[in-house]
Amino acid sequence: MSAPGKHRPQAAAGAQAGVQSNAPSNVQTRSAPDMSSVPMEAIDLQIADVLHAVRYPANKDCIVDAARDAGASNELLAILDGLPEQDYSGVDDVTRFIGSNYGPGLGL
């Protein structure tokens, strides 16, 4: 016979590893993109990755800070720093402004 506390029944693999989701089963969660690759990407991919990592609504400063934290290129930081000082409700609001000011060459 085992000493008390020395023998525990095997738990399910997910529970044993501590892998449990707090989200209800019908809710999809989105993981953040891998921001470590942002500086190496083309500018349009940098924009997409940074803007999708921002929590909206967000103002210009939040967006620029997210890009800086991701290690975005100076080119992207300059583009985002040119955004008007306002709140943006989502990615579409930001890309609409960038596309209208920097043309179709960005591929947004």
Read across the widest sheet, the strand sequence of neighbours is 1-2
N-to-C SSE series?
HHEHHEH
Helix content: 40-55%
**Inertia-based shape:** globular
Overall mean pLDDT = 73
The tally of beta strands, per DSSP, is 2
Biggest sheet statistics: 2 strands, antiparallel
Content-based structural category: mainly alpha
| Total of helices | 5
Q: Spans with pLDDT under 50 lasting ≥5 residues? A: 5-33
Give the helices and strands, then pairings:
Blueprint: H1 13-16, H2 43-53, E1 58-59, H3 60-69, H4 74-81, E2 87-88, H5 91-102
Antiparallel strand pairs: 1-2
What would you say this structure looks like, in words?
The protein is mainly alpha-helical. The chain has a domain at about 35-105. It has 5 helices and 2 strands; from the N terminus they run H-H-E-H-H-E-H. A two-stranded antiparallel ribbon has the order 1-2. Helix 3 (about 60-70) packs antiparallel against helix 4 (about 75-80). The longest helix has 12 residues, at about 90-100. Residues about 5-35 have low confidence and may be disordered.
